[in-house]
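ugh ok fine here u go
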Amino acid sequence: MLEVIKAGPQTTVQDLGRFGARHLGVCRAGAMDALALTVANRLVGNPAGAAALEITLPPAGFRLLRDGMLALAGADCRATLDGEPVWPGWRTAFRAGQSLRLEAPSSGMRAYLAIDGGVNAPLLMESASTDLMAGFGGLYGRALRDGDRL
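structure:
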């Protein structure tokens, strides 16, 4: 579980998306960088397509509410966990109560935050991905806001 301290301009829950419903007018949605999502998930032992956070153009900040493992992939956002560096492409242990902060990216645009066990969001058409235009998926079909808990 985590609490959003600073959501940034657009942080959403994403997985690999919805498939097989385009003929019904339902977009695939899903991660913009499927490889980065997959890498982050695999680093913490999740299935490749597990739900994670897609953080577009940080800064962003989160309070981690349980012990576990996290991984970041995608944009290099000079992340810190209670002030200590968190390297993209590596698995990092965390303790309940620690704070994760991502700065504006030095390269790239989207960072993916995966937590062991995945992000718990309801499935809609077999996906937890947020579709902002349709207003469904993820957390209430919208980008995350300060104070949200997942």
